[in-house]
Amino acid sequence: NVQPPEKPLQAEEWNRLRESFRSPEVFEEVMFNSMVRCNSPIDVAKSLLTHLAKSHGDIAYSLLVKYLALCVQQGQTSEIRDVYDIMKVRFKIIESGAYNLLIRGLSNSDQWRMALTLLEEVKKIMIPSRTNYESCIKAASRHQELNLAFELYHEMLTKDLVPTFDVLQALFDFSRGMKDAELQKELFGILLYLRENQIYPHKTFMWSIKLWFESIPGGNWRGHLTNIKDSGQCPVCKHQLEDSNLTEEEYSNLRERIIRDVIHGTDTFRKTSPQEFEAFQTFVENRLPFDIVIDGLNVSHMKPKKMHCENLFDAVNHLAKNNARLLVLGRKHMLSNSSNWKREVMKEMQNKADFFFAENISEDDAFLLYATLRSGKHCKFVTRDFLRDHKACLSDSRTRHLFRKWQRGHQIAISSSVDRKRLNFLPPFRYDCVVQTTGDTWHIPYKDTFDEKYSYEVPRKWLCIQQK
Amino acid sequence: MQSANMLLKKIVRSSVLPFAAQHGMKKDLLPLSRTLSLSLCLKQDNSCSPSEKLDLDAWKKVMKSGLQEVSETVPERKELSTLAAAREMVEMWRIAGRSVPENISEEQLKTFIECPSKSAKKKYLRFLHIKELSKKNDKRKMNEKRERRLETQQERASETDETKSNSFVCLWSKCMDRAYSWRAAQSMIFGQPLVFDMSYEEDMSIREVANTVRQLVLSEGCNRRSVDPFHLHFCNLQDDSLYCKEFIKHYREAWGKLLITATDQCYTEIFPKDKLVYLTADSPKVMKTFDHDKIYIIGSMVDKSIKTGVSLARAKRLGLETAALPLEKYLLWNSGAKNLTLDQMMHILLTLKDTGDWKKALEFVPKRKYCGFVNKPVHELRKTLNLINTLKLGKKHEEVRKQFAKNYSKKLMQK
């Protein structure tokens, strides 16, 4: 590695440096890389370029791009333009890496409109990246050209690019204090986009939303941070949040897709067999509807020190309390009177709940989903599994969102505290955890940190905004 | 001057021309600057005064000036066809220093354009780049080898050329081939069948099929060279399938003369069902011994994305017995998937057939995947481990450990 010089050098000094470098053929590349890394003054880089231009009569494209990166890093607008002009005459087309740099560099300067023309140029050869759009949208909104910013934002959505939080946040930030019905509608649109895609903003983005609401002239919006109770009532405005029930259509849609994608998939034999699935279907049809469906094997591993059948027995006893109709799904090996599965206990349980035993190599989760969905909207299921693999089997994102929504509202989880003697069942959410509105209130769940990202984790903190 | 300009224009326009050539041409055209700067450097050496002003923007002038005429004469850019545009783009990426192949054929360019996403495009170009590099390396090595051989020949020629007496004519490879073929032919009459199930084409991408066939070719090769080869069956092999195309690519005219049975029939039509055993890593049953009366089936599938249970599903559908290799039992598994390549399977099965020695056979599992051999059965190892722990920690811990061991084996069973 080489340390770039601090001052511009003469040609012969560069020559000497180059000679002393162990592999002179890559000297320039390495030198420019380290200049970018050390953020050297651009005069140094220029002196090297001048030396190269004079001795070779030409400068390689890769070096120009590296010089460009240095200029962008230091916000040297006029240099960026010059490099662009040179590239433009020198090469037939410019590749995406240089365009990314040019757009980023120019959008942060007073020549940001130039970035827009570059974006148009990029569009001719490929789909611009989402960071290209990000730069342009941010630049436009920074200069109060919000119409333009939204135009770009919509264009980006039609190209199936997912906007970054930064873009969305910038749109809120720069719309602050403006009284414009059209603009307001657009920003509400962003909130609905978050709702549709079950995206939760992070804390700083949430603050931007709050401040924007409160800044609308004559809007009289007030925002409060709060935690929603289990009942689903907002402590601030006493408003009841939406429940997570699906509509009839969504529900039947989800059921069909689960059968098609998760249970059958490409080959029914992968998770079960047609005979077995048929047997299960008739079994379920004859005993409908259930109130709770239990993943027997999953529950039986609850406490490792206890026998498996004991764990399951506890769970069944606990859940059978209110005359709930239970279905326990298991595998055939549970019936083979082993040290973990005592026959007497199994017998006793079978009086309290319906049991279905799948083949040892079948997947019981698929049956769990089917039985629950077939029983109707009131039916819940018990498992510690997050069901991520099944969600992944669903083929389009819309159904995946439906699945998650349904899962949030219908999965009874078991808390994993080891020291407590009794099993602890966590009821599913009674309310739906998405951005929601009633017109004069908005409730927005948010993440505490930027990088909470597990799909099954749902934020517990909310922003409540109401209009006085 | 005019001719020089013409030349320049030509070079600039045809950017397909490697950059290095451009350098060279330029140097010849503008010889002044280089010699000047060099001579300056030589003459002045350390004496160059720091007060001398550097023109930092001189490079821009150079870059622009050499091209002024060009940019004037080049008419507004014509709309390029998508293929040509893609070629330009790839070329630009190359000179920007990305991993991109130098030469790209029309067909590859089409595949490149059809890649569904940017990352897929990037990956494809990278793949081509690496392929190109290794090809170049091979060529270079071959050339070196040839030169070395020539040298030694010359040396030998210069030595005394006494004729050695030998009772054999040097025809080694031909003789070996004949012997192998004889053995393979015998195996086709008396040998134990081994089935490769070629029904996974729609589960694989084109590249995966190509990899599969490569592995099959290797397997066939090592089978042929073994002392007691299997009688290979390629079952469910359709005539116009991708598999076939790839086979022909590899074997050329030898494909029709291979001493194997290739058929579009299913193995269930050829052999009695109760003799068939489908080998799959997903099987709940673990193979204990190699049975010389059974007919083992291997799925001809390379699975780069994770598709579990595909071959198990196939066996379930046909109601066949399944088995997995006892990898856990003999190896302390480290990392990596339990599914092995087809040629590794072939080596393992051949060794088992000849010796019945699991340890020897499982030598062919890649070393990176396991830490070492379990020299005793696992339960014995666990017993000694428990004993050590009781001595060390007292009785209470032993019970916990027992419980854990029990749970653990249960978990394995459920899998």
Rg of chain A over CA atoms, rounded to whole Å, is 31 Å
Q: H/E element string of chain A?
A: HHHHHHHHHHHHEHHEHHEHEHEHHEEEEE
Would you tell me the structural class of the helices and strands of chain B? alpha/beta
% residues in beta strands of chain A: 5-15%
Low-confidence stretches of chain B: 11-51, 68-76, 411-415
| Measured distance between first and last alpha carbons of chain B | 80 Å
Short descriptors:
heterodimer; A: 468 residues; alpha/beta; Rossmann fold; 20 helices; 10% strand; B: 415 residues; 6-stranded parallel β-sheet; 57% helix; PPR_rpt (chain A); zinc (chain A); metal ion binding (chain A); PRORP_C (chain A)
Task: Please tell me about this protein's structure.
Chain A: Its cofactor is Mg(2+). The complex is a heterodimer of chains A (468) and B (415). Chain A is of the alpha/beta class and 468 residues long. Chain A has a domain at 248-428: Rossmann fold. Chain A contains 20 helices and 10 strands. Chain A has helices at residues 11-20, 27-38, 42-56, 61-74, 77-90, 96-107, 112-125, 130-142, 146-158, 165-174, 181-196, 203-215, 248-264, 274-287, 296-300, 308-319, 343-352, 364-375, 388-393, 397-410; strands at residues 221-227, 292-295, 326-331, 354-358, 380-382, 411-414, 425-426, 436-437, 441-446, 461-467. In chain A, the strands form 2 sheets. Chain A has a 6-stranded mixed sheet, sandwiched between helices. A 4-stranded antiparallel sheet of chain A has the order 1-10-9-8, covered by helices on one side. The longest helix of chain A has 17 residues, at 248-264. Chain A is elongated. With 415 residues, chain B is α/β, with parallel strands linked by helices. Chain B starts with a helix and ends with a helix. Residues 11-51, 68-76 and 411-415 of chain B have low confidence and may be disordered. At the A-B interface, helix 1, helix 3, helix 4, helix 5 and helix 6 of A face helix 2, helix 3, helix 4, helix 6 and helix 13 of B.
